[in-house]
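subagent[fold] <- orchestrator: predict structure for attached chain, return tokens only, no commentary.
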Amino acid sequence: MKRNMLEKEQLEGFINIIREELVPAMGCTEPIALAYAAARGREVLGCEPEGITARCSGNMIKNVRCVTIPNSGGLTGIEAACVLGAAAGDASAGMEVLEKVDEAGRNRAVELLRAGCCTVEFLDSEIPLHFVIRLFARGVTVEVEVRHTHTNIVSIKKDGRLVFEKARELADKGYSTDRSGLSLENIKAFADEVELTRIRDIFERQIRFNMDIAYEGISGDYGLGIGRVIREAYADGVVTRMKAYAAAASEARMGGCDMPVIINSGSGNQGIASSVPVVVYAREKNIPTEKLYRSLAFSSLLTIYQKEFIGKLSAFCGAVSASCASAAAITYMAGGTVSQIKATIDNTLANIPGIICDGAKISCAAKIASSLDAAMMAHYLAMRDKEYEAFTGILKEDAGETISCIGYIGKVGMHQTDKEIIKMMLE
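subagent[fold] -> orchestrator:
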């Protein structure tokens, strides 16, 4: 396969995509999105709400139900996220809306929750990430609607009158930069060619934030302590360390740690799984920093590319996509050819395309560890020029076609599966 050369416009576009997607967030992104919308609604309302109604799609309910909200004192659930955002959140901080919540804010949120300030309703929507927050006080009502992506406020109404409406094209996508140029070949060309001065700050921050929470997860008391268990129970080696630190970071995040994570495609777990293993591998193998940054760019864009087909939320576990991207980036880092990178992707997706997403929770950490194990097995096979043949199961001749098939299964084929998962969880 001949080497791609990207046009300047494409290079700029890919940099913009990375800057749009690799942003900091505290805690699980779904409750944080609710808190952000509630905080934005309070700004328009102009005072503390007397009541809040949160109408949420099934996937939002699924992903908020079981995670601890950071800076909340151990609170969980949709009601807590909305009330905490409205009572003490800072909407100007975006996905770090709860960063400055203090003890007084937490206490006030608890008081409002005990008073039954917030109610939750099911929003029957075909859009997986969709919710409407309605706040009212002193006879005034404000309604904030979010679609497709976590901070994509498409409209704000005050007493039924529009005070903000996003342009239709942006509202339907949730982002401004065109993604149609993403492909395996173009992603590799970008990683090869981009001037590191253009992306260094992005990946320095990604390494710092995501490795800091990985160290916190290994040393702290979160969930089952999965990172330490992996380190102690498995033979020491680079794959064990990759799995342990990535899983520990996820477990800390799901367990309410108030340290920020650099997310990918709206997900902290995907941000962790697409970066921490690459950093751990590079440090273990003494890979030059320049190559590490290029590999992180490769992994980040490959994760985004896969999620373009699947969507932000679905019944398909995002740890698979992100771990697949990590292993492919490690093949790239290790000097693998385009064919070997493609083989890493195909070998991964031939193995674990069926892990379901049953909501955000501490066991996401275990799914990351399992996905990384499969992805690194795919990498080692690929580096020995071993690859499952095209048309073995759902594999296609081109890696992009395989990725699109997996996306179709995750978005369309598993749509009913998603409904059944949500139904079981609500029961």
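orchestrator: received. Logging for downstream: Strands lie at 24-26, 51-56, 118-122, 130-137, 140-147, 153-158, 161-165, 260-262. The mean pLDDT is 94.
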